[in-house]
Structure prediction request, 345 residues.
Amino acid sequence: MMKRPARILVTGGAGFLGSHVCERLLLEGHDILCVDNFSSGSKRNIAHLLGHPRFELLRHDVSFPLYVEVDEIYNLACPASPPQYQQDPVQTTKTSVHGAIHLLGLARRTGARLLQASTSEVYGDPVCHPQREDYWGHVNPVGPRACYDEGKRCAETLCMDYRRRHGLCVKVARIFNTYGPRMLADDGRVVSNFVVQALTGRALTVFGNGRQTRSFCYVDDLVDGLLRLMASADDFCGPVNLGNPVESTMLELARKVIALTGSGAAIDFAPLPVDDPARRRPDISLAQQRLSWQPAVSLHDGLEKTIDYFRGLLPPEPPQPPASRPPAPGWLAVGQAPSPSRLRH
Prediction:
């Protein structure tokens, strides 16, 4: 880790992951410039940081150039859940590709180190399991997820070309499913979907038959991996997988959320989205070897923390009216006409 205070730019800094990165870097004594256009980020995520003397917020879209003086750049800018990035697919591609070009240009001008947040989506629907960094992937380049998948693949290409051509110090992290506090309640990711549905008494929506798998990494573990990667030797640029290698089916996750929330919610099944991967699990051997990193938070403990966060975020359920009871013998219910036998003459 860097020992001297640094001037650090975090793009997407008001997002779920970015806000945690900003918070952690502040704790380490650095000066933070948080950049976000708030397309998927939230001011709520960074509200507690706004008064900090070493934290600065700038509303800006990274698909346009940015001129600042910094020592390090964490490029985390881009919607990361399918409903978000498919809402404006052209802008999603611009954010990944133009954003990478502008920030790599900034890194070249200032001599800054740059960490590019890539994704496990570069592997597509993999035929290799678990996924290693030397696997080239199985991606549909013209499908509805391609704006994100191919945008991130192109950003990786740009990072490596800037390294080879200009000698930049770049780091590429392939981030697998991450969850925790500050996820948006409506962002469409499976953990937040399940937790919100369970806490609001709705059935949990499982796509397909529920046997498809994902590996879920708690956000604190992921942030630790990112900071270790940024601080790694200049000759190590990745790409490197960061994620939890413990694999769960969607049905297993749904049942665990129901149990931890105590909701007793039902499970509904819906058609599987197009190009949804059947299996996803990282091989983290490289991160273990080069970064001395592996996740420490179990899925059970991480879900408990996430559920507690959403309990405080969601509005309380309205009180239910008391169950109606039949009137006691000898008494009339409101609006009930007396029978002739009960009238006095």
